[in-house]
Amino acid sequence: MMDDNILVSTEQLEKIICDLAEEVSLAYENTDDLVALVLLEGAKYFANDLLSKMDLPFDVEYLKVSSYFGTTSTGIVTLNGHDDLQVKIRNKNILVIDDIYDTGHTLFNLLAWLEQCGPQSVKTCVLLEKLIEHDKPAAIDFLGTTIEDVFVIGYGMDHDEQYRELPFIVELSSELIEE
Ligand code: IMP
Ligand code: MG
Q1: What is the Cα–Cα distance from 130 to 103, expressed in whole angstroms?
Q2: Most CB within 10 Å of its CB: which of 80, 130, 152, 178?
Q3: What percent of the chain is modeled with pLDDT above 90?
Q4: Helix (H) and strand (E) counts for the chain?
Q5: Nearest ligand by distance to the CA of 126
């Protein structure tokens, strides 16, 4: 039942991530002071796989970001654990890694906050972009693939903390939603 609605298979994910790792490694070939900033929790699996395939030196920082309540974006973005990050971002080349570009509130707010920290450069790498009109614009420099406008789970993405461990990306069907 779960497999019926697979939108991105395990094999497709592997290919997407290999290609992205190559693209990102090439883009930062001659760049020092690269910091990968991973947005938790959703991008954890994606970032682990991507970063392990990257062919250059970098630091990794994590930032917990939340805006969702169930399957709805609240539009209010909370950044947690960023107090000492500001210092680590100054003058560095920041690669933001996120799972999905949906309404855009998360990336829009995060990018605005990052700018205040005085980075040398900021680029974004996102696994999925939903094909919708985003409420807030955000420039995506490296994109895995696009998906239709459905709520998805798996490969790090959750519904109320469930289903992150699925090795593929699947549409959340009503029978999977536990009341
Ligand atoms: P945005 O702020 O609406 O662009 O959403 C960004 C964040 O919401 C992402 O980083 C995800 O963590 C979460 N999100 C958005 N859409 C989905 C989805 O379909 N499934 C799971 N998480 C989602
Ligand atoms: Mg997220």
Answers
A1: 9
A2: 152
A3: 78
A4: 4, 9
A5: 1
Which ligand lies nearest the alpha carbon of 104? 1
Contact by Cβ (8 Å): 154, 171: no
Dist. CA 170–CA 95, nearest whole Å = 26
pLDDT for the residue 77: 73
Q: Which of 56-70, 73-87, 118-132 is predicted most confidently? A: 118-132
HSE-up of residue 63 (Cα within 13 Å, Cβ side): 29
DSSP string, 20-73: HHHHHHHHTTT--SEEEEEEETTTHHHHHHHHHT--S--EEEEEEEEEEETTEE
Structural contact between residues 63 and 82, judged by C-beta atoms closer than 8 angstroms: yes
Q: Measure the CA angle with vertex 111, ends 136 and 27; round to 5°.
A: 110
Would you please indicate which residues are annotated as catalytic (active-site) residues? 102
Query: b/e for 41-78, b at 16 or more Cβ within 10 A?
Result: bbbbbbbebbbebbeeebeebbbebbbbeeeeeeeebe
Type of residue at 19: D
132 vs 162: CA distance, rounded Å: 25
Q: Are residues 126 and 144 in contact, defined by beta-carbon separation less than 8 angstroms?
A: yes
Q: Which of 65, 106, 110 to mutate to test the pocket of ligand 1 (most atoms within 8 A of CB)?
A: 106
